[in-house]
Amino acid sequence: MTDCDLCGRALPSVIPVRVFRSRLKFAYPEGVWKGLCDTCLDSSQETYLSIDKNEISCRRNKCVLCGKKGRVYPVEIQIPDFSTGVIKRKVNVCTKCLDSINETYIRFKGEQIEGSACEHGHGHL
Question: Which tens digit of pLDDT belongs to each residue from 2-29?
Answer without folding.
Answer: 899 999 888 899 999 999 887 777 777 7
